Every structure is written in C-alpha cells, then in structure tokens.
Amino acid sequence: MSDEESEHEDAEEIENETKSENEGEEEEKSEHGEEEAQEEAREEIPLTDEIIAQSLSLLAKTGNGLAHAYTRFEATNRNLTDITRLEPFVHLRFVDLSNNGLRTITSLSRLKFLLTLKLDSNELSTFDLPPFPYLQTLRLSDNRIRSVKGIEQPRLEILNLNQNQIDSCEGLEQSKLPNIVTLEMRQNRLITTKGLSLPNLKSLFLAANEITKLEDIHELSRLTTLHLRDNKVGTLDGFSENMKQLQYVNLRANEVTDPEELKKLAILPMLRALVLLETPLSETDSYRTEVLVALEKLERLDKDQFDEDERAEADDERKRRIEEKQEAEAAAAAAAEEGSNQEETVETQ
Length: 349
Fold this sequence. Notes:
Blueprint lengths: L2 H39 L7 H7 E6 L6 E7 L19 E3 L19 E3 L18 E3 L18 E3 L21 E3 L18 E3 L19 E3 L20 E3 L22 E3 L11 H8 L5 E2 L2 E2 L2 H41 L1
Parallel strand pairs: 2-3, 3-4, 4-5, 5-6, 6-7, 7-8, 8-9, 9-10, 10-11, 11-12
Antiparallel strand pairs: 1-2, 12-13
C-alpha cells in the first residue's frame, strides 16, 4: 500500500470517528432537548373542588369523638401535579395518589393520622416527608427515587420501592424503620445488600437488580422470605445461623454454578423451599440430587416437592461421599504416620 493510500485511509477513519462523535453529541442534545421540551410542555393540573368531592369517602369520628370527617382520599390516574388543596384535610388516614404527575408532596406533611399512603407511578425523586406517628404502609413504586435516605417512619410495616433508581441500601436501618416487616425493592440498581440493617424484617424482595454480593443480611434474624430472582449472585456467602426463621429463598436466574455453594445454606435450620431455576447449576444432570445431598431438610426445589425415591437416592449418595471422605482421611493419616516412622528410622540410623 502506498503512503498516499495509507494517508487517505487514515483521513477517512478520522473523518468517520469525528462524524460518529458529532452524531452522538447531536443525539444527546436531541434527547436533552426533548426532555426540556417535555418540561416546558408539562401542564400543571391542581386539585379542584370537583376532584376533591369525587375522591373523599369513609366518614368517621375524629379523635375527640365530637365530630366527623372524611378519612379516605383516592385520586388516581388524574395527572395531578399540585395537591396543595389537600392540606386542610388533616383527618385523612388512607390516601391514594397513584398514577399522577407529582414531583413534590410536602402538602401531605400535616396529615398526622395517616395509616396508608400510596404514591406509585408519579415523578418523585425523593421522599421528603417527616415521620408520621401512625403510618403503616407506604408505596412509592415506579418513581425516580435514587436514595432511601430520608425515609424515617417509626411505625411503618410495609415499604414498596419497586421500579426506582436506588443503588444503595444505606439508610435502611432499625433506628429509622424499627417496625418494618416487608420491604420491596425490585427493579432498582442495587449491586449489593450492604447497609441493610432491619432485624424485624420478615419478607425481602430484591428481584431484578444487579446484585452480586449478599452482605449485611446475617442479622436478619426474623426473615422468612428472601426473593433474589434475576440478579447476578454466584456465591452464597452472607447467610448465618442467626437467620433461624428463613424458610424460602428464590435465586432463580442468578449465576450459581458450583454445587459446593449449596452447603452454605445448610446453616439455615428452617429452610424448606429453594428456587434455582435458570441458573447454570439447574442445567446439570444430577441437579436435584446434588441439592438434596447438600440440604437434606429441604422439602421443595423450584416448583416440585422431593419424592421418596429422590430422598433415598440422595441419602445413598450422601453416605457414599461420607465413606469416601473417611477413607481418604484414614489413608492420609496412615501415610503421614508411615512418613513419620521412616524419618524416625533414618534419625536412629
């Protein structure tokens, strides 16, 4: 190839790269422009008297018992962006504002009698409300929340944060959520469970994240259900004997390959159901036998109960492996002793 041809090709390559970069910048500007256009085009839709009248229900006595007030408010699928007019309704206990366009909810701060608050499918980036003394259920799925910091509710029992942009469990601790029993964080951006410290938690749903490590779960002593489907867990470290009530673990569509990893679950005294479908391990020929050899108290694998034949086969295999191990240990001990005797003989000579 001549120098002139080489220079021509280099020039074309540089031109293509520059063109590609320019196209990328134009695409980014276009996307940014579209977002700005959407912002500008966003129509502000406040609560109206008509919507309020249609949404209030469940008349009940107020705290002093001398008056009555509406305690339920349901205004879903209204495209609301402003709920300021809800502030005077301080006796509300059940509020559902799902499927709207809310970005701020500070108007709810005065509703100190709230028991249930549903804010699914809005445009919230934070949860900036103070602690409510009676709130038990909080739903914030399908928003734009990036951090759990700021969520402090003394009596909260159920928290749903599915389909957000949360990348850390930091802040999920007993001092802020002392009574929580069910936590749902499916479809977020978690890569680890580090920072999770909720000893009263019973059900934990973390499917469809990017989790590779199970950290800080060993103190979840009351956990009964752990759902980790569609993550990237390959090693089963993190479990402990302290998890005495854990009965169900779902690891479907994870990256568990080595059957030796299953032994790490043997320390869970109440584990009865395990899901490993769509893992590399589940594609091996002796899959069910291997699982039952490692976890003899297990009752169900994936969707099927173990039958008597499977248990008998697993028992036989387990005994065979124990005998092989004992024989290997005895042979190793004999070899070591023989080696020691030979050394003594040499020293004597």
